[in-house]
Amino acid sequence: MASLSIVVFDDILSLMRKKLFLLPLASLVFFLSGCSFKKSPSALQINSTPTANVFIDGKQVGKTPYQASNLSAGEVLIKLIPDTTSEPLVSWDGKIKLNEGVLTLIERDFASTEAGSSGQILTLEKTKNKKTASLSIVSDPDGSLVKIDGEAKGFTPLLLGEIGEGDHQIAISKDGFLEKIIKARAVLGYQLVVNAKLAQVSEGSLSLTPTPSRQDSSSSTSSGRSNTEQEIAKPYVQIKDTPTGWLRVRMEPSTTATEAAKVNPGEKFPLLDEQSGWYKIRYGQNKEGWVSSQYATKYE
């Protein structure tokens, strides 16, 4: 994507919808009143589970998934308040630096406690060396192991002066926390900046057997045994423990896709297909959907 250096201003939202969220809009300009030159705007995309109200500098601007393509570069205060009437979830706020000509991505998975919440912020910062792409990773907690494309690179905070241009898979893990998998693109002349928050695994939550109150009728078999008890032919996936105590099944392999159902930790489902970061499962009779591979283990 580094070769695409000129982007029409009206095309930013379409690029965001295609999830080209870290494309540097290095030559992005637009003209007003007889070709007067203005600086490149900043763009912002925010996704969350569940849906959240979005505030920028104290002003409510919408709900997630939120997209904006004409923001001024600089520091802004972002606040996300979960939009839910069920169990109270912890909101999130933080100061974010929006860089000129770059789309910044914020993702957040809310939980009932800050320790159980997780998320990441990704952006690009222009560097002096236009011939290399670099990477900076910080995490909460510090000292988390970082693997790039399956190869261990060190512990956070981590700075890599050079990584290959193009798409990479970044895995961040630490004992007592759920591993986070991030897919991002490194671009020549830019430093990819990753700020990740891992969800802590609380005591007793490692048990993969859900409580009866979390059982759903769509998760039970005709014999009356739950999917945690029944043997399922391979290939299948088993749902991992999650910060919320359940995992969303979506109609398409995207965090912005419509929710089809919820499944519980420990449950097993036939694996139908897979895409980058997603597994397609059968969760009921004639019912199919996608779950995040971050919270599911594949057995073949």
Provide a descriptive summary of the structure in words.
The structure is a single chain. The protein is an all-beta fold. It is built from one helix and 24 strands. The protein has a seven-stranded mixed sheet. The chain has a five-stranded antiparallel sheet with strand order 23-22-21-18-24, with no helix packed on it. The model is unreliable at 1-37 and 203-225 (pLDDT under 50). It has two domains: 9-197, no CATH class; 212-299, SH3 type barrels (Roll). The longest helix has 6 residues, at 12-17. It has one helix at residues 12-17, and strands at 31-32, 36-37, 42-49, 52-56, 59-63, 66-71, 74-82, 92-98, 103-109, 118-126, 133-140, 145-148, 151-155, 158-163, 166-173, 180-186, 190-197, 236-239, 247-250, 259-263, 268-275, 278-284, 287-292, 296-299.
Give the helix/strand layout.
Elements: H1 12-17, E1 31-32, E2 36-37, E3 42-49, E4 52-56, E5 59-63, E6 66-71, E7 74-82, E8 92-98, E9 103-109, E10 118-126, E11 133-140, E12 145-148, E13 151-155, E14 158-163, E15 166-173, E16 180-186, E17 190-197, E18 236-239, E19 247-250, E20 259-263, E21 268-275, E22 278-284, E23 287-292, E24 296-299
Parallel strand pairs: 3-9, 11-17
Antiparallel strand pairs: 1-2, 3-6, 4-5, 4-7, 7-8, 9-10, 10-17, 11-14, 12-13, 12-15, 15-16, 18-21, 18-24, 19-20, 21-22, 22-23
